[in-house]
Amino acid sequence: MQTNTNEKKKYNYVKELTKGIIKENPVLCLVLGTCPTLAVTTAASNAIGMGIAATIVLICSNAVISALRKVIPDKVRIPAYITIIAAFVTMVQMVVKAFAPAIDESLGIFLPLIVVNCIILGRAEMYASKNAVFPSILDGLGMGIGFTATLLLMGSIREILGNGTWFGMDLPGNLQIMIFLLPPGGFFVFGMLIALASKLSGKKPPKAGGCAHCPLKGSCSMITEGGKTCEEKAQVEVEASAKGGGEV
Amino acid sequence: MIKALVAVFLAAILTENYVLSKFLGICPFLGVSKKVNTALGMSAAVTFVMVLATAVTYPIYMYLLVPANLSYLETIVFILVIAGLVQLVEIILKKYIPSLYNSLGIYLPLITTNCAVLGVTMLVIEKSGENFGYLHALVNALGAGIGFLVAMVMFAGVRQRLETADIPKSLKGLPITLVAASLVSLSFLGFSGIVENMLY
Lengths: 248, 200
Known about the structure:
Chain A is mainly α and 248 residues long. Chain A has two domains: 12-201, no CATH class; 216-242, no CATH class. In chain A, 56% of the residues lie in helices and 2% in strands. Chain B has 200 residues and is mainly α. In chain B, helix 3 packs across helix 7 (115-127), helix 7 packs antiparallel against helix 8 and helix 8 crosses helix 9.
């Protein structure tokens, strides 16, 4: 994964920063970090708290991983990245516990679970491990802003429709459609947002999760010979059995 | 005692389903649920690792981190233990039980970053107390795994039906999958209260 040819690459700093916000939005386009997106967006304030915490971890881990990219041996890079990310998550967790206990309470288990957030490991593997420190920081910041903005949008929709409030303020109309606060509402709003994003951008909606978006696909043993992913292989099997061949 | 264990087990499968009501492990839920076979393999591997990870991390936390006053290291220690454990299981299966490795092995590397596994190990620590000991933690992990399996297999069935359906262009792919997930999750809401009514 580590190449020296990238070193001479010219960076367009503005582009590195803004690509994460719309063009490569980590949640709506790359479909990473779905778990926190669905779980903490019952209120706009939770969404902001989660977004900021993840952004801080993303910037710090991107910077450190990029700085260490020539030191970390290729074979153990994933465990090394996870350790670095976990260290920053623990720090953020301690700071949040000390200064914003209310946010710690409402995010609950999802604050420590930033460790396994695909966005962070994904950016480490796809970007920070191949690029210089400063662009990696910008990349982390951009992706973090994209993540936070999407969480805020979803949190606002769910809070306004489900609770009739926004950031705790009462809104006229007093809508209280409970289902938007419950898990099914989370799945539904997320699905609709992705559909809307693809309608507005004119692109096809992303395929359902899976290997195509998995940050670990480069090191995953599920990718078989010929570069086929598990998904594509399964697809071939399904097609073959549909034809009545049965044999793959 | 047995009643309490059954309650923990059923609650983890039905009312507190990790995928459909706690939003843990959404990535494999959406990614590996296209075929019933792969869904089964993935969930079997997840269940196995969940129970094993809980069996290891619970004593580490209770008898190592708490006495040493290091409980703030929970996150970093747990993720490292899980990563190491997954590697170890992979090596052992490859060497001694190749047939099991062939069916479960390919899913193992994905499990390290599956938030459901880390989530289970951390949630049982949060729940632990006088009425929730080591045995309860293990039963809870097993229930969480089975709950994951139930959700995955059910959803794989739904998705195979979706393959042939006529869907508006913008909804094709992930959006319609999420709407389907929403309906499956809605059906699980119907279980709320069932465990309490059954046992108390």
